[in-house]
Here is the input.
Amino acid sequence: MATPILEFFNVNFIYHTISSETLSLKDISFKLDKNEFISFVGPSGCGKTTLLNMVAGLISSTSGEIHLNGIPIENSDTNVGYMLQKDHLLEWRTIYKNLTLGLEIQHKLDQHHLDMIDDLLKTYGLWDFRNSYPRQLSGGMRQRAALIRTLVLSPEILLLDEPFSALDYQTRLNVSNDIGSIIKEKGISTLLVTHDLAEAISMSDRVIVLTKRPGTIKSIIPLHFATPGLTPKTRRNAPEFTKYYNEIWEAVHDENEDFD
Amino acid sequence: MKTKTSTNQEKNTKSNDAATLFKYNQKKTNQNDTRNTSGKSTSSEQEPPSPGQLAYVRSIKRNKNMIRLLQLFILIAFLSLWEVAAHYNWINDFIFCSPSKLYSTFLDMMKDGSLPHHIGITLYETLVGFAIVTFGSLLVAILFWWNTTLSKVFEPYLVMLNALPKSALAPVLIVWLGANQTTIIVCACSVAIFGSILNIYTGFASLDNDKLKLIETLKGNRFHCLRMVVLPSNVPNILSIMKVNIGLCLVGVVIGEFLAAKEGLGYLIIYGSQTFKMSNVLLSILILCAIAMLLYMILQRIERKLSEYF
Here is the structure.
């Protein structure tokens, strides 16, 4: 068995404020295999975003270890891509200039990467809009542009923090279908954080349910669909979908009930 | 609308012109549809505007013209009344002067070159002060953004200095720095710089943190954040602060010239009032009005040009 691309070993995270300290994540251990797609669901405030921030290297865990490709995260040079809740395209740059942002920062503005941007723009239907400004694009197109901005840096792991929550329902179905298919096709290992159980089931290989604060892993649910090669959209009509939905809904609902 | 065009088409099935026209119109609307998705509405350019649209545009234009006309009327009425009142001795034209006297003074002073000289001096001092204020406050605001502890340490001092009436500082500056041009420029800076720093820094600090997080996730450092997000997103804010600053710098220069100058419009005002050359005083004030207006308008034009990009 190859080394998993990402491993958490008993990770805890505590954050401090003037008035108190809060244990936000407790004893988190899991593995993300190559090409695997894992979704995290759970009540709000259970530390889902904190978890992604740790993988992105924006914050360090209080205790425990995180390994990328078998190497502790502090010494790792694994490329991690992060898509935030909003697209955060910079309004004063054209779409093209927005896509080169990461390349500019990392001094990778070479022909190889520029060709890659051209290809991605053409593949994902944004070629005609490369010289437009973000405000001229629809929400779905903006989100796709944000994905391309991440993809040109060739990430081995992709982190998605509720990337569709700012979109209306119809667009959300389409964009999650598009982006889900793109990720599958490219075979990028992905962590998705979401409130939308249906979204989690339609896109993932496994769903991890977190408990309310302090967030611990309540259950890990592997998803198996009888028909191979389903897209996120067609998965929603598969017979297994409802079964998984109910199972995960029960698990999350228990957590939310304690809140009330 | 649709039924109408189709009946039209039926009526003119034999007429090729009508048919091609119909096709042409249809093509145009299709083009409009595709363009609209790109966010650029070009329909107003493509189709002849309706009578209602024309009437609306005309009413807007008429209103605009009327405003201009009234503005001009007020100016002319004021000047005529002033002239007439001085002519018939309703007011004392030695104290109140008159437009015709101002005009002849203006011509005289232009001829002997003294007026362009004074205007040049005041303009020069204002622009140097403005440049120092702009770059200085930008630099300090960046420093404060870089190190928030520093900004917290200095904040109460800045608030205090900003609230202080700067004309109180001018006499002190003269004693410390001497009665020279440096003093006047420092005086101009002192009026504008503290407020400018506070306002620019507030703009920097109120930035959406997620935008900075984005740069961080792309492995950018703080310098990238500054160059790619903080500065460009604050261009509109900085420009509107600059518009205020240019006026404040002019105020500072005139205060300075009142107390410490041998030339410049401020000097001309003080000297004129002391020697009862009221035409000099009023002319200088009028020119100051024009300068303030002009500088403001230049910045406004730059702002409008840049607002297309930011």
Summary: Residues 89-155 of chain A form one domain. Strands of chain A lie at 6-16, 21-32, 37-41, 63-68, 71-72, 80-83, 157-161, 189-193, 206-210, 217-222. The two ends of chain A are 44 Å apart (CA to CA).
